[in-house]
TrEMBL record:
Protein name per the record: Endonuclease MutS2
Keywords assigned by UniProt, alphabetized: ATP-binding, Coiled coil, DNA-binding, Endonuclease, Hydrolase, Nuclease, Nucleotide-binding, RNA-binding, rRNA-binding
Organismal lineage: Bacteria, Bacillati, Bacillota, Clostridia, Eubacteriales
Organism of provenance: Clostridium mobile
Signal sequence range: none
Complex and partners: Homodimer. Binds to stalled ribosomes, contacting rRNA.
GO MF assignments: endonuclease activity
Residue positions binding ATP: 332-339
Gene that specifies this protein: mutS2
Task performed by this protein: Endonuclease that is involved in the suppression of homologous recombination and thus may have a key role in the control of bacterial genetic diversity.
Length: 785
């Protein structure tokens, strides 16, 4: 991707924001080097890893990045065999611990959705638990080695502690003896040796070694001769402690060096994961989605927003290109949003091609372009003596020479800066040349000649930015298929220009031209509505297909879990029967032994009775084991909505939610689960009619008392989704039309999870964030069908 497009479309600002979500300088360096990928596989793979990172954040909370550092310098020293400092070793241990914890963080149960890309990345992590433990056991802090680092160090420090205690006692005794000769009744340290502050005139009264004197010379710091040997012993122990610490650090550094390949590999993976989760958090902050990506030049951005504009004021736009037309000519008033539209399309493509999620609606589609060329803004150069027109034309010449069918070209005010007639002619020629090369083009212009070119040329479409004549302000909405109108007459009337002047101006324009423009606008408004309906229908179809595949996969997993549970139960039953048989055989054997020892006939008779009871019990257990899978109860002839029935496969009562479909299946509620089962698998519930009446009455009473809101604060994402799903079912059955979901403001992760669930929930008609007085962004107001 050319650097000019990245600069003009402000991708560097996106990267600066992205850096704010990283933990290490190494991840920031990865962000600095981030550029759009040049093949479809890489783009989809990196988008998927970003999506998986967001799923993990929602379901499992923050990843295990606690205490990680950029240890590239430490790894480099370890690789060369240097002895590392305690703080450096601790940083390496922290990175190793984080990498090891990641393997547990990404694991999932069989029935849960997998995180394939991130799991593959974490598969290469090589746990170094032994090295971690060695470092943590030996090092307490940045500058402190633990007594447990070695038995030698422990013994040295114990001796040192004892020696210090002895010498302090000795010093205190000397202070009392030499009190008249001392400046103060205390001792101090000089060069790690205990000394006394002696008055200079009493030097001869305290025999010993002079180590220092005060700045005034009035005090001499003398080590009494009786302390010399003790101080020497302490000094020796200190040197031994230092040598032992150096040995320990050398040994730990040696172990790091031995495993340096694994350490470097794990560290690189952690920094890559730091980068991935930064992308995910950035996407969450934008409420972004993972777009579909194709290589066919087809673009369909739904409700796309410019990520650098304040979310409170940005107006989403719908842009599509590449199927019915390959060139889009946008006209409209100044400050109407034409340039922002160009930058939005270009920047969202660069973000998606760099593996970043984009702020748009689900099912938006972007294309993989080998190059994006942007001629936007005033490129006047004083140094090169180029005018605005000349600088633009220099850039356009480069674009014409380089662009091909795999390129997206963005022109802002094409042909501006020179004579309007010549500029318009040049603009048409440039667009036509690039169109013939099948280049995808979006161009803005004020020239009416380009409207006519778009109307009569196949593969070129008009578009405009909407202008509200009532308020004399742009709405910033993009209308594809409708050329922009100058609205000069309406605007002039609003501003107070006399009607007779406006009427005279209208008379100077051929009435056929005015009627033709109005007719074209009317036809194209109908055409654009039909195209919008077709796009929405296609998106709904794709979404329905995705939901179908997702729930079929969930049902398969549920059936698999149920089958495994049945198999385990059968296996456990057979094991119990086998153990009971073996125990019974042993008992019978013991009984026969007792009989041989000679008991009376009465005792033998009682033993025979016990034997018979045991035999009957075994036969009963075997019969129950054989009938474990047999169906119970009478088959249902006709199912009724809300009826409670028995499902043998789950061995529990369920509630019928739907009528049978063309495959003979109904949806039933089993606890918090909703599953599809065949009617022939259902049986009449064993509950009495009285129990059913009580149950129905309880259901009615519960439905009447359903609250109009649910509070999710304090829950994790998964728990909140289950609670909300159950609550919406109850609210729907209770006939509530509007409910409030309270999720709090926080980091926004819980709100994101709930909104994603609401997008696909069958009972939800629409939803929005709360307004002032309703709870603001801390609540979501849901309208039910």
């Amino acid at each position: 991707m050319n650097d000019r497009a990245l600069r003009v479309l402000e991708f560097n600002k996106i990267k600066e924001i992205l850096k704010g979500f990283t933990h290490t300088q190494a991840a920031k360096d990865i962000v600095d080097n981030l550029k759009p990928y040049n093949n479809l596989y890489e783009v989809r793979e990196h988008l998927q890893e970003t999506k998986e990172g967001l799923m993990l954040l929602v379901k499992k909370g923050s990843p295990p990045f606690e205490g990680i550092y950029d240890v590239r310098e430490e790894i480099g020293k370890g690789e060369k065999g240097f002895v590392l400092l305690p703080g450096q070793l601790l940083k390496i241990a922290n990175v190793m611990r984080s990498s090891r914890k990641f393997k547990d963080y990404v694991t999932h149960k069989d029935e849960e959705e997998a995180y394939k890309v991130i799991e593959d990345i974490c598969e290469s992590i090589y746990p170094l638990k032994a090295l971690e433990d060695n470092i943590y056991n030996a090092i307490i802090g940045e500058e402190e080695i633990s007594d447990r680092a070695s038995s030698t160090l422990y013994n040295i420090r114990k001796s040192l502690k004892d020696k210090n205690a002895s010498i302090r006692d000795k010093v205190n005794s000397l202070i009392r003896s030499y009190a008249p000769y001392l400046q103060e009744s205390l001792y101090t340290m000089r060069g790690e040796r205990y000394v006394l502050p002696v008055k200079a005139e009493n030097k001869s009264s305290v025999p010993g070694l002079v180590h220092d004197q005060s700045s005034s010379g009035a005090t001499l710091f003398i080590e009494p001769m009786s302390l010399v040997n003790l101080n020497n012993e302490i000094k020796e122990l200190i040197l031994k402690e230092k040598a032992e610490i150096e040995r320990i650090l050398k040994e730990l550094s040696s172990k790091v060096c031995e495993n340096i390949a694994y350490v470097k590999n794990n560290a690189n993976i952690i920094w890559e994961l730091d980068f991935i989760f930064a992308k995910s958090k950035f996407g969450s902050s934008l409420n972004a989605i993972c777009p579909h990506v194709n290589e066919d030049g087809f673009v369909d951005i739904v409700q796309g927003k410019h990520p650098l504009i304040d979310p409170k004021v940005v107006v989403p736009i719908d842009v599509y290109l590449g199927r019915d037309f390959t060139s889009l000519v946008i006209t409209g008033p100044n400050t109407g949003g034409k340039t922002v539209t160009l930058k939005t399309v270009g920047l969202l493509h660069i973000m998606a091609m760099s593996g970043l999620m984009i702020p748009a609606r689900e099912n938006s589609t972007v294309s993989l372009f080998k190059e994006i060329y942007a001629d936007i803004g005033d490129e006047q150069s004083i140094e090169q003596s180029l005018s605005t027109f000349s600088s633009h034309m220099t850039n356009i010449v480069n674009i014409i020479g380089s662009a091909d069918s795999k390129s997206l070209v963005l022109f802002d005010e094409l042909g501006a800066g020179t004579d309007p007639t010549e500029g318009a002619a040049l603009a048409v020629s440039i667009l036509e040349h690039l169109r013939k090369k099948d280049v995808k083009i979006i161009a803005t212009t004020h020239y009416s000649e380009l409207k006519g070119y778009a109307l009569k040329t196949e593969g070129v479409e008009n578009a405009s930015v909407e202008f509200d004549v009532e308020t004399l302000k742009p709405t910033y909405r993009l209308l594809i298929g409708i050329p922009g109108k100058s609205n000069a007459f309406e605007i002039s009337r609003r501003l107070g220009l006399p009607d007779f002047i406006i009427e005279e101006a209208k008379e100077s324009i051929a009435s056929e031209s005015l009627k033709f423009e109005d007719l074209i606008q009317s036809l194209q408004e109908k055409s654009i509505k039909a195209a919008e309906d077709a796009r929405k229908s296609e998106m709904l179809k794709n979404e329905a297909q995705k939901l179908k595949e997702k729930y079929e996969e969930k049902l398969y997993g549920l059936n698999k879990v149920r089958e495994n549970a049945l198999i385990d139960a059968q296996r456990e039953g057979k094991r119990l029967v086998k153990e009971a048989k073996e125990e019974a055989d042993n008992i019978l054997k013991n009984i026969r032994e007792l009989e041989r020892m000679g008991y009376s006939s009465d005792v033998r008779h009682k033993l025979e009775e016990e034997r018979k009871k045991l035999k009957d019990k075994l036969e009963k257990i075997e019969t129950q084991g054989e009938n474990l899978e047999k169906e119970k109860g009478e088959k249902i002839k006709e199912v009724k909505l809300g009826e409670e029935v028995y499902l043998p496969k789950l061995n529990q009562n369920v509630i019928v939610l739907t009528k049978p479909d063309n495959r003979g299946e109904v949806q039933v509620q089993a606890g918090i689960m909703k599953i599809n089962v065949k009617v022939e698998d259902l049986r009449i519930s064993q509950r009495s009619a009285k129990d059913k009446k009580v149950a129905r009455r309880e259901v009615r009473l519960n439905l009447k008392s359903v609250s109009t809101s649910i509070d999710l604060r304090g829950m994790d994402s998964e728990e909140a989704i289950y609670a909300t799903d159950k609550y919406l079912d109850e609210a729907y059955m209770a006939g509530l039309s509007k409910v409030t979901v309270i999720h709090g403001k926080g980091t926004g992760i819980l709100r994101k999870a709930i909104n994603d669930m609401l997008k696909r929930h069958s009972h939800v008609k629409s939803y929005r964030l709360g307004e002032y007085g309703e709870g603001g962004t801390g609540v979501t107001v849901v309208e039910l069908k």
